[in-house]
Amino acid sequence: MGSWNHTCAISNLHIHAGQDVVVFLLLKNNNNGDGSFCYGNALYDVMPIPFYGKYDDYGGVEECHGFGLPIILEELKGRLYKFGQGPNDYHDCEVTPENLTVEKLFEADHENRLGIQDHSSWNQDDYSIGKLEELRLEKGLTDSQQFELDRLAAKIKKVDTYRQVTHVVVHGDIFKAITEKWYIEDYVGEGKGTTGYNNNYNHIYFKDLVGFIPAYIDKKRAAVEEHERKLAEMGGDPATARQLFRLLAQLDREDWNSPNLAARWLNYLKSAGSSNVWDFINVDEHVSEYLEKKDWDGLSKFAYEVLTAAWVNSFMSYTRKIWVKQTGQGSQNSEPLGYQVLAQTTLDILEAERREYGDCEDEEDEEVIEEENAQ
């Protein structure tokens, strides 16, 4: 195909060779049986650790680095879907845990030969066919329902466990803007904030979020050290080692309502909720491993990278974007006019909305404040 400009997964801007990029791996979402597009992971789940490099002009990334890169490669090797050498020596590349490097990752992705073994038991088709079978046994099926049962039965005969892994890149300057200029509003209530109606909100930037990591680490370390002290006082009975798992569970429960934002965000990500599915790298297991090894530096770096992915994923949600492979592969186009028209029109629309609705909201806020002052 030759050289071509890559496409930023967030801005859709072209990316030239040598430009800084942030890489996110995506895992094909096979649980979208209901066709829901409520969240940005409707088609692909983003893996919760990025890595960094420069675009190589051929669809891959060079000079790759980042704390999360070895973790990603290790996780891939553990669940990799193997491909043998196909009939085309140039395009049907062999992909095995033994030969998987970051260079092979991009080559395999380019040839649609990158994926993992997925033995997940959940399948929307299995669920639907089960319900139809219940209906058939209980009261029979209509012709339409029988047709649907036959269709699903044919569909789920496939036993291949392949689940696609691919990658997207984010333009380095776009990533920098999101992590430096964008913020979210955090409700604190009771006038304890610094902005919003009656100062009930705080503006939280990425630097604020990751600024909670040291306190998060200190609490985990103190809890583990206290556990070890109590264990030593009890004579180090191996049976009491089970208390460590109870301790970790207790720490998780405390994180749900913790004033520490890093703890809250990390705990939320470990839950694999409907809007944030982390099916490839189990954040919970990695956190527990760092705690058991008392690798506080490793836990701190891991938390930073996971929160980075979470922050970008949150931006995707706020701007109604979806994780998906971008078009434009093979194109060298870098014409700016379309982007300029789109960007300026977007700003014009937002400014018009601010004038129409924002002024009214400001007036209402002033009226409420005046009423409160008069009482």
Which features characterize this protein?
disordered C terminus; single chain; alpha+beta; globular; 49% helix
The shape, in one word, is globular
Q: What portion of residues is helical?
A: 40-55%
Tally of individual helices:
12
Strand content: 5-15%
Elements, N to C (H/E): EEEEEEHHEHHEHEEHHHHHHH
**Count of beta strands:** 10
Description:
With 375 residues, the chain is an alpha+beta fold. Among the domains are: 125-155, no CATH class; 340-375. 49% of the residues lie in helices and 13% in strands. The chain has twelve helices and ten strands. It has helices at residues 68-79, 102-110, 124-139, 143-155, 172-180, 206-210, 213-233, 242-256, 261-270, 283-293, 296-318, 337-374; strands at residues 6-7, 14-15, 20-28, 44-46, 51-55, 61-65, 115-117, 162-171, 183-187, 201-205. The strands form three sheets. Strands 3, 4, 5, 6, 7 and 8 form a six-stranded antiparallel beta sheet that branches. Helix 3 (124-139) runs antiparallel to helix 4, helix 9 packs across helix 11 and helix 10 packs antiparallel against helix 11 (296-318). The radius of gyration is 25 Å and the shape is globular. The N and C termini lie far apart (73 Å). Mean pLDDT is 84; it is low at 271-276 and 363-373.
What is the secondary structure topology, with strand pairs?
Elements: E1 6-7, E2 14-15, E3 20-28, E4 44-46, E5 51-55, E6 61-65, H1 68-79, H2 102-110, E7 115-117, H3 124-139, H4 143-155, E8 162-171, H5 172-180, E9 183-187, E10 201-205, H6 206-210, H7 213-233, H8 242-256, H9 261-270, H10 283-293, H11 296-318, H12 337-374
Antiparallel strand pairs: 1-2, 3-4, 3-5, 3-8, 5-6, 7-8, 9-10
